[in-house]
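Late entry, written up from scratch paper. The run itself happened at the end of the previous shift, but nothing got recorded in the book at the time, so transcribing now.
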Amino acid sequence: MFLRGPRALFLRGPPLVLACSRRLWRRPATLVVLAAAAALAVALYLLSSVGGASLAHHRARWRRHMTPSTATAAAIASGRALPMDYDPAALGVVPGSTGIVLTGPSGAVEPALLAVQVLRDLGCDLPVEFAFLEGELQERDLIVLRSANISHRNFFSERIESYQWTRRELKLGAAKLDAIVTSPFERVLYLDTDVILLRDPSFLFQTNAFRKFGALFWPDFPFTPRSNAIWTIMDVPYVLEREFEAGLVVLDKRRVWRGLRLAQYMCGEAKVFFQHIWGDKDTFRWGFKATGTPYFFVPDYLHSVGLLVSPTQPFGGATFAPASAYLHAYPPNVHAAEAGLGAAVDHPDAAAAPFPPLPPHEYVPPAARFCGQNMLQMGFDDDADWLRLPGRPAADADADAADAVPPQRPPPSATAAPPPPWPLFLHANGLK
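Output as recorded:
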């Protein structure tokens, strides 16, 4: 007679547990593995609980920083925080001024000279300043900058000293936001020293997009995954979109001050935020999103210049290859396209059909030199009706009339072809 149901479990349960215990006792290795698994499960549970509390703590901190209070006023008065409202006098900004800002240590001076020479060759006559921190430049660097008609400015302060940035955080651009907000220019074109302009960028300040939004940003290759804790910290709903590429940004500090102020706070708290985002570039994105500050995000036209060296490094495997007859035989960046990263700039004779994955040595010339990723950023259609300020032609639009939150961009037509993109600048990380 076979017993079934709860009665069977009641009668057979204790002997079954006893038998399993005896078997485990005879196998100490299995017992150790099970104990370790249980300990790991408990540790993960505790970490998740602590992590949730930590995320809420960081969210509350940046909100307090952006909210007027006695503590915030005291921090501003002591110089440990930026003014709550845009104050040109307190920031040392010349109202209405426009210029280009570069920053970096001594090693960035030589590429900065190259970038500025390219600008002058393109006809750009905007004033340029090179901002640096205490001890980053030698006297010979300052002489070289002055000889190229580039002003220099030490923007070190007690506030920056209080951040105690590590070498890694500085390499990831923790100081960039301070270089921008403390610049004497009110309208700033920030330029990484490894960015090569392909046309005079002065026109960007006159575009309908800049008049309406006061901030222009270009895209990067990666997307921020839904699992990233930064969505929770900044209290921003998840959306599938590319991250920012901050090698070149155009800003009107007066009009986008709240977004800049939060972005600067995130860089100051790099020990927290740089665990979730890749350096300064995305502090612009989260600072503007969390404060509701409008900005213009250039349509997704970026390209990668070079050949894919390794399918396992889609974001940094580009190579400058010498001109040769071999180039036409190499397939386009199939791996990047499959990953949703966009097609690479490739030889026009290369076939567009999908290629099977190939080992690097089969399509990278032996003479090619690894140089890191090189992004080619494109211009945008500035004549779109939705960019024009209401009630007046674009050419006569006044920046002061664009302070209101702009309307959302209408969805693209299924039949309308996008305007042909044109190259604007190359972020040549290989120059490093």
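The radius of gyration is 27 Å.
(Scratch paper discarded after transcription.)
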